[in-house]
């Protein structure tokens, strides 16, 4: 009698695979469809925690008198007081003036650098050098400019040795010189941010259009101003909005270099909020100023972006 496992009653018989139940198929399809959302969910929750929650908290706080005791509801009293506060309007004006000048200078310089870096082979090979200022910490840049222009008086000493001036520059006692110092520091550090965006926009344009214009006898400046620049309008608008939002939060340079002086002449809205909240401990009033600034930023950004995209399509 054969002892083979394939013979007789001991022969293993293949069992056909049972089809998966329909409920399992439906569940697997739902899981597959929900998988992208599940992967993104942690990042979304994190962003909501650090943006939405503080925003809602600030809005609620702006309707209360908040110091170190219990919250006291005051309705719109903080906003009414804010609209009559000359220091708030002065900080808003300083932010607008310094931000506008810095933004215009950064845009013009970045466009000029992008034009040459995009076309000139020698400059194109060294474009990474233009990004060096952006790699420094804002606080380090602020301390460098404070040392050169204020504490160390290196800049004044150079001008005295050349013979252009007879005494040290009184930057801290002049509103416009203090503003110019803050603008110079911001332009030096953040022009590379616009530069790299503009270079990427130029590289992404259709080369056939520029080639056709060049065959028609157009010069590089004519091609840039009549073809490349109009095509870059949406990119320029988005880049300027990003920089404008960042400029409205200009705090580090003001805090380290000028402290908002002289006579609140360089106090930005961010420094006003800091001073109100963390020096006078009026957190409800500071939150009201933050909400007003947030609304103004959103409205202006929406108007600029919409206008830029409409003009680009037309």
UniProtKB/TrEMBL annotation:
It is found in: Cell membrane. Residues 92-304 form the ABC transmembrane type-1 domain. It comes from the Bacteria. InterPro entries: MetI-like (IPR000515), MetI-like_sf (IPR035906). PROSITE patterns: ABC_TM1 (PS50928). It is a multi-pass membrane protein. Residues 1-23 are annotated as: Disordered. The chain crosses the membrane at residues 34-60, 91-116, 128-148, 183-202, 222-242, 254-274, 280-305. Belongs to the binding-protein-dependent transport system permease family. This is Multiple sugar transport system permease protein. It comes from Albidovulum denitrificans.
